[in-house]
Amino acid sequence: MMAQDVANKLIEKACNHLVRNMNISKVEQHFKETIAMQRESSTSQIVFWDMLMMNMLYFSENEQVWEREFIQMLEQKEWLKPAKLEEELLMHQMRVRQQVAQQMDEATALFHKQYETEHITEEDIVYDYAYSSAGHSMRMDLLTVLVSTPEQSKVLFEADPKETIRIVKGYIAYHTDGIINKTKLI
Question: 133, 123, 110: which is closest to 56 by C-alpha?
Fold first, then answer.
């Protein structure tokens, strides 16, 4: 078996492990509560939509950070210690949160154009938000699992880093779709 096949099998196993015992009704409940809190703290429907969209922007900026950290470990063939990784990611998340906050006016202006031109519905936004949030959690959890089991995970170092990331993203998208499609958020 080629190194990439071995790496892909490990990724598949790790992702399956993350979702295997997931309680969909708990996931649904979590999203409903989070969304309700955001709705209640908003002064209007547009402000509510903007909040969810800003969160999605945050998750997408975070995905780039996650990918850089991940690819760096794969290329250097060395996992960060779990505590060190957590520290790095938290530091990046704070920076991303700041950047996103600074882009708020520009971003919301773009969102408002999108709402009009793309005839976006609240359901679209709520589900996109849930998808982004679930994907974010799964990316973070998967990386934590990999660095917490360095002996098992070192097989990833033998594979091509870019291909490994592509495979990981594919599994995460697949599982996130599966999770969100089973929820009823609206």
Answer: 133
